[in-house]
Amino acid sequence: MIEISIEKRDQVHVVGLVGEIDATTAGQVQQAVLPFSDSGGKIILDCTRLAYMSSAGLRTLLSLYRSAAAKQGKVVLAGLSVELKDTMSMTGFLGYFTLADTIEAGMLVLA
């Protein structure tokens, strides 16, 4: 199960993710966030309450990154747990993203 909240701060879309991104929920995340990446926007994914991410979740994040990068947009992952950082590092996905400890730190990166 995943809960997705979206808030716009200045020119940044802050997307809160609560729960798990897996094969069942990855499509929901992509549908909610992809429109912001398609328009070259700045996105912070608040992962502080993200408990789990499967390979489907990793593919979704990579798709969002590629879409944003193609339009000169940016994606920041905020509050990523040590476990998720390790998984992303081992799979080579971590190098694609800018990380921030908090949403506020992510806002500074995107300013």
Major sheet: order of its strands? Answer: 1-2-3-4-5
Instruction: Identify the CATH architecture.
Output: 2-Layer Sandwich
User: Which CATH class is shown?
Assistant: Alpha Beta
How many DSSP E strands? 5
Count of discrete domains: 1
Look at the structure and name the CATH superfamily.
STAS domain
Rg from Cα: 12 Å
Low-confidence stretches: none
> What structural category characterises the helix and strand content?
alpha/beta
Q: What fraction of the residues are assigned to beta strands by DSSP? A: 25-35%
The largest sheet, given as strand count, sense and whether it forms a barrel, is: 5 strands, mixed
Write down the secondary-structure element order. Answer: EEHEHEHEH
CATH topology type: Transcription Regulator spoIIAA
Shape: globular
Describe the SSE topology:
Blueprint lengths: L1 E8 L2 E10 L4 H13 L3 E12 L1 H16 L3 E5 L3 H10 L6 E3 L2 H8 L1
Parallel strand pairs: 2-3, 3-4, 4-5
Antiparallel strand pairs: 1-2
Helix pairs in contact: 1-2
Descriptive notes:
This protein has 111 residues and is of the alpha/beta class. The termini are far apart. Helix 1 (26-38) links the parallel strand 2 (12-21) and strand 3. Helices cover 42% and strands 34% of the residues. The chain has a single domain, classed as STAS domain (Transcription Regulator spoIIAA), CATH 3.30.750.24.
